[in-house]
Amino acid sequence: MSKVKYKYNEDTLSYDRVEVTWRNRLKKLSFHLVSGIVIALIIVAFSYSTIKKWGKSEIEVDIEATEVQLLEQLERLQDFEEVLQDIESRDTEIYRALFNAEPYPAYKRLAGTGGNPNKYKKFEGMAHEELVIELNKKVEQLEKALVAQSISFDEVVSLVKRKEEMLRCIPSIQPINNKDLTRLASGFGMRMHPVHRILKMHAGLDFTANTGTNIYSTGDGVVVRADSEMSGYGNLVIIDHGFGYQTRYAHCQAFKVKVGQKVKRGDVIALLGNTGVSTGPHVHYEVRKNGEAVDPVHYFFNDLTPEEYQQVIEIASRPTSSL
């Protein structure tokens, strides 16, 4: 149903009746709608450049902030790299040097560095692409270097444990207690043989004491021989200390250990005697390293003061004859 409205007529100075139809309403609505769209387009047209400029500024600010953060992280990684290099130097020059061990191989520290460059393709097209790739390469290198250093430290720990064992095994005391020792009769080197009266290599030290005096193992080890030896040693005890070391105790009166028995430094292994080619009660003591006889006087560091050690060296160097 149409709606009735009134419109003022200036000619007649009266109100005329106007019938409002749906058609008129639609035309009026269309006019307002089109006017609104036109006004909106005008506003957007004038504002677009401002909005675009504002949005671009925000993005640029974010990109610059990201670059700053990436550079800071890269600098931190370089600091970490310097610290790790210092640790690697200490590992080689201090820790491994203490145990006379070879440096951790450089090729193992560098293993896997470089790699397939295709794995960095995922960063192509990103903002600060080169910086992001460099950062990822640094992280990867540090990860691999840390793994290598961790393995190296595991080896150093093993060396420490082995060093403790080695220190227990290396001969480092006299085979005769100082209070029982009568004298150090003959040192290491060329000496006059007591029977044959010719110069002959004396491969050990002779310690004189009363018959039956205790003879001590000079380091931890395993008894590999405890019997009579016919070439002049008489009753002989040989202890294998591992790490290339063996000690020999000759001219014993009696044995206190058996072959295969484990002994500790300071254990009584025999009694001093005068068996074999000997001119008086004493123990002939030898230290062998990798099968070669070495001067035992250098292996008394756990048993003598510096003054006593110097005195032993002087006595052992005198050109006396062996017993």
Could you explain the architecture of this structure?
This protein has 323 residues and is an alpha+beta fold. Helices cover 41% and strands 25% of the residues. The chain contains four helices and 14 strands. Strands 3, 6, 7, 8, 9, 10, 11, 12, 13 and 14 form a ten-stranded antiparallel beta sheet that branches. Strands 1-2 form a two-stranded antiparallel sheet. A hairpin with a 4-residue loop joins strand 1 and strand 2. The longest helix is centred in the N-terminal third of the chain and has 77 residues. The radius of gyration is 49 Å and the shape is rod-shaped. The mean pLDDT is 75.
Give the overall form: rod-shaped
- Helix run count: 4
* Low-pLDDT stretches: none
Question: Mean pLDDT across all residues, rounded?
Answer: 75
Distance between the termini: 148 Å
The chain-level structural class is: alpha+beta
The radius of gyration over CA amounts to: 49 Å
Provide the β-strand percentage band. Answer: 15-25%
